[in-house]
Amino acid sequence: MKKNLLVSFAFLFVFVSANVWAEGELTIVSWGGSYAKASIDGIFKPFEEETGIKVIVEDYNGGLAQIRAQVETGNVHWDVVDVESQDDLIACDEGLLEYLDDLELPDAPDGTPAEEDFFEDANADCSIGNIVWATVIAYNSTGFESDPPSTMHDFFDLEKYPGKRGMRNTPEVNLEFALIADGVPPEQVYETLSTDEGIDRAFSKLDSIKDSIVFWVAGAQPPQLLADKEVAMTTAYNGRIFNAINLEKQPFVIVWDGHVRDYGQWVIVAGAPNLENAKKFLQYAARSTSMAGVSNRISYGPLRHSAWELVDKHVETNIEMRPHMPTDPENSKNFLVNDPEWWAEHRDDLFERFTAWVAR
Questions:
Q1: pLDDT exceeding 90 applies to what percent of the chain?
Q2: Taking a C-beta distance cutoff of 8 angstroms, is the pair 145, 241 a contact?
Q3: Are 302 and 131 in contact (CB under 8 A)?
Q4: Which domains does the chain have, with CATH numbers?
């Protein structure tokens, strides 16, 4: 009898423990590399310590293919995903994401309501703003000892600056860069791309360097391409290049001219298995202190005004972080803000054309 009771209690303990464990975890999908490390140390671990919810981290390279496949098959195993702004709009419209209208976000430390403290357009129906980041041009300074490149035009000038060029294997940003290099003012880029002639013009500019392009997919690739001297210049996420310079002491230089700025946003996959934990995480990630926790580890800016007051020095190297952010005044002399609504409308057609162009 006593033995049977012990067995029963043991079974009950295992059953309850298993269910507590199942309810006490959360899968968050981000972009890997130095950005993932900054997120893990700046947000994920502190969230685990405060809530007791175990965070499982997975990496991806953007896009909606995996989210779409999970939702359409009913086999959802991702909870929270860090997406690009146009992916948020497309996925929300397709019903791939949870609506967050009723999610209560924390006020700023001084009591300012969240809706007044977040940057304009940082949040949407299915997303909460995370970071402001930029795609920039970068080069290895050992290859340009005199008269180094300094403009977007220089990236496309193979005669003056010979060598391979790294570019992300996507039309997004590449088309914008091509038009800026061809003399289109940033404020007219999307107006120009809204015409057939403008799209042809962008592809024509890309044609001028196509034979010299090395395409990349993951954000960790551009710093490696520069370090291995496989390319003379490359497009890259600004934070990846900053960390290569700051932490790895690589001789890289960022060209801010003509950069394209964008917001990173947290979303919850429709049918997420840990929905309540996912909502708790988004509320935690929306804190000013959480955003600053990332921005003090990698040069992506926070999307709350109050969080900017908390951006200080890098937690390891003690370097001042603000001058390395996309939004620093010195870096903001000639740039373009990504238009997610434009890309949500034109993306399918341009991806089809870009894919065919790459294959030619």
A1: 91
A2: no
A3: yes
A4: 2-132+264-324 (3.40.190.10), 135-261+326-359 (3.40.190.10)
Tokens of 8: 């029963």
Residue with tokens 């988004």: 282
Residue 173: which region, alpha, beta or left (left: phi > 0; alpha: psi -120 to 50)? left
N residues, the chain: 360
Whether 229 has a pLDDT exceeding 60, the answer reads yes
How far apart CA 123 and CA 97 sit, in angstroms, is 14
Using an 8 Å Cβ cutoff, are 79 and 27 in contact? Answer: yes
Asked if residue 20 has pLDDT above 80, the reply is no
Q: Is 360 exposed, middle or buried (0-12, 13-18, 19+ CB in 10 A)?
A: exposed
pLDDT surpasses 50 at 3: no
Q: Please report, as a single letter, which amino acid is at residue 68.
A: R
Measuring CA to CA, which residue among 314, 287, 286, 280 is closest to residue 300?
Answer: 314
Digit-coded pLDDT (tens) for 242-285: 999 999 999 999 999 999 999 999 999 999 999 999 999 999 99
Encode burial over 150-176: b for 16+ CB neighbours within 10 A, e otherwise.
Answer: ebbebbbeeeebeebbbbbebbbbbbb
Among left, alpha and beta (phi > 0; psi -120 to 50; other), residue 41 is alpha
Nearest partner of 135 among 240, 226, 60, judged by Cα: 240
- As a dihedral over the C-alpha atoms of residue 141, residue 333, residue 331, residue 218, rounded to 10 degrees, the angle is -70
Confidence of residue 7 (pLDDT cuts 50, 70, 90): very low
